């Protein structure tokens, strides 16, 4: 997520078996995609994602650990047309005093809105933070394992 002038820009796309490019790689590697009773796709009927550090038994079936990266060197209005804007997250961030508080609040929001898995929030400020433009900028990492039926 990138915050630009108080607006959030989503920078990532989930690695799911629904994506044509991911599904094609799975199939070319001898794997298959099935849908469960809730209509969610899974690799070989087991894994809801197509990229994973673990899941070694599915590596021969197209699951890879390679990250997908994106570099934005010039930020323009044409990029905004191609990327979803998520204003709510920026509203939360803009009310926080520092990146640590912002990360904690975003993790709390994820829990409140029903996140069913663990959440990792990293807030990296580029430049001044809010109204504290003359103060030294610091950053923090916050990791929150969301309480759900899976982790409770």
From TrEMBL:
* Gene Ontology MF, one: protein serine/threonine phosphatase activity
Q: Which CDD domains match?
A: PP2Cc (cd00143)
Q: Where is the signal peptide?
A: none
Residue intervals of the PPM-type phosphatase domain: 1-126
Looking up InterPro entries in the UniProt record yields:
PP2C, PPM-type-like_dom_sf, PPM-type_phosphatase-like_dom
PROSITE patterns tied to this protein: PPM_2 (PS51746)
The protein, known as = Protein phosphatase 1K, mitochondrial
Annotated organism of origin: Astyanax mexicanus (Blind cave fish)
């Amino acid at each position: 997520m990138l915050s630009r002038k108080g607006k959030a820009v989503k920078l990532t796309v989930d690695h799911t078996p629904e994506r044509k490019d991911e599904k094609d790689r799975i199939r070319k590697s001898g794997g298959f995609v099935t849908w469960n009773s809730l209509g969610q796709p899974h690799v070989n009927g087991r894994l809801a994602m197509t990229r994973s550090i673990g899941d070694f038994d599915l590596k021969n079936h197209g699951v890879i650990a390679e990250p997908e990266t994106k570099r934005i060197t010039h930020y323009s209005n044409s990029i905004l047309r191609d990327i979803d804007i998520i204003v709510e997250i920026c509203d939360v961030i803009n009310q926080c005093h520092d990146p640590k508080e912002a990360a904690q609040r975003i993790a709390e929001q994820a829990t409140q809105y029903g996140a069913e898995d663990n959440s990792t929030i990293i807030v990296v400020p580029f430049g001044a933070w809010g109204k504290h433009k003359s103060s030294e900028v610091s950053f923090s990492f916050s990791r929150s394992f969301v309480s759900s039926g899976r982790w409770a």
